[in-house]
Amino acid sequence: MKVHHIYNPEMECMDIESRRKLQGERLRETVEHVYKNVPLYRERMDAKGVKPEDIKTVDDIRLLPFTEKTDLRDTFPFGLFAVPNEEIVRIQGSSGTTGKPIVSGYTQGDVDVWTEMVARSMTAVGAGKDDVVQVCYGYGLFTGGLGAHQGASKIGAMVIPMSSGNTQRQIMMMRELGSTILCCTPSYATYLGEAIHDMGIDPSELKLKAGLFGAEPWTQEMRLKIEELLGIEACDIYGLTEIAGPGVAFECLEKNGSHVNEDHVIAEIIDPETGEPLPYGTSGELVFTTITKKGMPMLRYRTHDICTLNPEKCACGRTTVRMGRITGRTDDMIIVRGVNVFPSQIETVLVRTKGVAPHYLLVVDRVNNADTLEVQVEMTEEAFTDSLANMQRLQKEIASEIKSVVGVMAKITICPPKSLPRSEGKAKRVIDNRKL
Ligand code: ADP
Ligand code: ZN
């Protein structure tokens, strides 16, 4: 029998009917708030002929309009904020679809809600005030670092804000400070695990007991590998900047799907083609509505992530719905080293670079458990006759431009004119060789 710890039993184990009632009330308040304060929501609801008073129960959610990442981009930076800027205490961000970032604004209350979501996630893997939490997610606009940090502080743990990178130092600190909980991407966890073995350290010399891994898709095979390499319990944590950050859903030690924090968000699965809601258990696109957020509430935000929802009560005692692993995307977004990458962002860079033709192919792979991104791009006929020095300059220029726009380092391969495959229909822009 596993021992389960629950941060907020009142909310996490609430009986389903009471929770649905609470969700309905909170949804109605949220809709009133955004209808009054955000022109985009008012216009979209008016266009559908829906008024805030039409939202009586949680089931009425299907009357509401959807939102998309493009809405955040089009109203960048403050267009979806529902409170005056002086009430916003934090900005976090993530990569958008065209190189323009998207940002999310949080009131103090929103930061507190997000922090509690992560505190629940930490508690669910058995973490508490006696633990030493090593955060190797990046700190900055990206929600991973600060999100994990806040949650670990909330449960009173000793937090080591390592941020990402510098593996040797991570391992040194892990050993010297006796880290017990690890927070990073699953691919980095594998990388760390192998580095530890390569350094001749036996994981039993370390104090690690569990890890919260997320920000990118991973598999059950990868879980087993991480657990074996590090001798820990490896649990999933899911989230997105638009809704809060990591912690929107998290796995308990049953490791059988991620509990959605349903007192703060409503999760739906829809048919990505028709937008119609699908019953529990059916695979489709995950959609979230925030019901406690004030700074930038989101109505029916389409994540483009594909998964299923499972409403069965979990052996841990929580009654919240569980999402299965993300099995794919409905768009062409890929995640490279935890960073969201859209082929269109790379295209934007290539199109404005002199000397290259708009024909390209992205090849993603995983070497030594680290993602690699190669951009193959064709030169124009004129540029191709140029000198080797110029080609190298071009490679450097493209790599640094992609790094600044997209946020990841890519290997640039310059190809002769007309050498990349052409397609008659939708161009295939991405080859993903990772076995996810
Ligand atoms: P994050 O800080 O979680 O990376 P972003 O807003 O940058 O937040 O990216 C959100 C996207 O990352 C999600 O829509 C999903 O595609 C992916 N993601 C986050 N967590 C997970 C996870 N545990 N499993 C699979 N994909 C995830
Ligand atoms: Zn559970």
Structure description:
- The chain folds into 2 domains: 1-331, Rossmann fold (3-Layer(aba) Sandwich); 334-432, GMP Synthetase, Chain A, domain 3 (2-Layer Sandwich), CATH 3.30.300.
- With 436 residues, the chain is an alpha/beta fold.
- The chain has helices spanning 9-12, 16-37, 39-48, 69-74, 108-124, 143-154, 167-177, 186-198, 220-230, 343-351, 381-384, 388-406; strands at residues 90-94, 102-106, 132-135, 158-161, 181-184, 210-214, 233-240, 245-251, 258-260, 265-270, 284-290, 301-307, 309-310, 322-323, 328-329, 334-336, 339-341, 356-367, 370-379, 411-415, 430-432.
- The model has no long low-confidence stretch (mean pLDDT 94).
- The protein has a 9-stranded mixed β-sheet with strand order 4-3-5-6-7-8-9-14-13. A 4-stranded antiparallel β-sheet has the order 10-11-12-15. Strands 20-19-18-21 form a 4-stranded mixed β-sheet.
- α2 (16-37) packs across α3.
- The two termini are 31 Å apart.
- The chain is built from 12 helices and 21 strands.
- Zinc ion binds at residues 252, 254, 259, 314, 316, 318.
